[in-house]
Amino acid sequence: MAKSPLLGIVTIGQSPRSDIHADMKALLGENLRWVEEGALDGLTRGDIEKKYPIAGKHDLLVSRMANGEQVCISESDLEPRLFDAVARIKDYKPDVVIILCTGDLPPITMDRCVVLSPQHIIKHFVAGLGITSLIVMSPEQAQVDNAKKRWEEAGFHTGSVFGSPYQAEAQLYQAAVKAKELSGNLIILDCMGYKIEHREKIEKWSGKRTITPREIIFNTVRTLFGP
Q1: Coil, helix or strand for 190?
Q2: What are the strands of the beta sheet with 6-11, ordered from one edge?
Q3: Which of 4, 35, 97, 192 is the most exposed place for a label (fewest CB within 10 A)?
Q4: Do residues 70 and 62 make contact, with C-beta atoms less than 8 angstroms apart?
Q5: Exposed (0-12), middle (13-18) or buried (19+): which is 12, by Cβ within 10 Å?
Q6: Is there a cis peptide before residue 118, judged by omega within 30 degrees of 0?
Q7: pLDDT tier for residue 73 given thresholds of 50, 70 and 90
């Protein structure tokens, strides 16, 4: 019997990303095979804070440590470590690779392997809906200006709120309540860390349609893998 396709997951934080496993299996099936690598694997929080301080940085990215804690790093500091993680994932010979980040990272390609960059797929998906006005939720307040700029450059009138998927749920509630008062009928949860459960709650609290990137990306993988 032929083996099922192999999915490679590269996180900008640390692997394993146990917070995505339940949603991934729900959308791709219990028999899914996958491997993971993280750009920050092998580092302690102290290592990260010492080597990659974020004070004064404006290209902030947010992800997750292996123990579930939130971690922040600038995109410029991340890139060399991300490319190292991509090189490691190649050794597994995956059929499809997901880069777990919705930020504007540099293009990544592999021979004989499809690499999914969420930021491009999600923007095209939203554009296909014919929506011109939306609300973007970022994990951290320091990301709001960059997120707003990215989406407005893509042609969308953009409102902004923040609430982290890696912190207390009260942050998400407060962000949803604020989003309720903004113009725009669609909320984009602009981080791969937002769960389907988060989307459902934010929709309830805000009264607005909400999209979480992992659903779009995992459904894309399902299409590529076939029945």
Answers
A1: coil
A2: 33-38, 6-11, 96-100, 114-116
A3: 4
A4: yes
A5: buried
A6: no
A7: very high
Tokens at residue 28, please? 């791709």
Q: How would you class 168 by CB atoms within 10 Å of its CB: exposed for 0-12, middle for 13-18, buried for 19 or more? A: exposed
- What tokens were used for 97? 């690779």
Q: Go through 37-51 and write b for each residue having 16 or more CB atoms within 10 A of its CB, e for each that does not.
A: bbbbbebeeeebeee
Cβ atoms < 10 Å from Cβ of 142: 16
Calculate mean pLDDT across residues 73-95. Answer: 95
DSSP code of residue 69: -
Cis peptide leading into 106, omega within 30 of 0? no
Number of other CB atoms surrounding residue 110 within 10 Å: 16
The residue ranges of DSSP E strands in the chain, in sequence order, are 6-11, 33-38, 60-64, 70-74, 96-100, 114-116, 133-138, 157-162, 186-189, 209-211
Residue with tokens 């930021």: 119
> Which one, of 125, 84, 76, 119, lies nearest residue 99 by Cα?
119
Strands 70-74, 60-64: pairing kind:
antiparallel
What's the token pair of residue 160?
């902004």
Task: Residue 203: count other Cβ atoms within 10 Å of its Cβ.
Answer: 15
Q: Which two tokens stand for residue 20?
A: 């995505």
Residue range 106-135, pLDDT digits in tens = 889 888 899 999 999 999 999 999 988 999
The residues near 7 (Cβ < 8 Å, ≥ 6 apart) are 28, 32, 33, 34, 35, 94, 95, 96, 97, 98, 221, 225
**CA 102, CA 61: separation in Å to the nearest integer?**
9
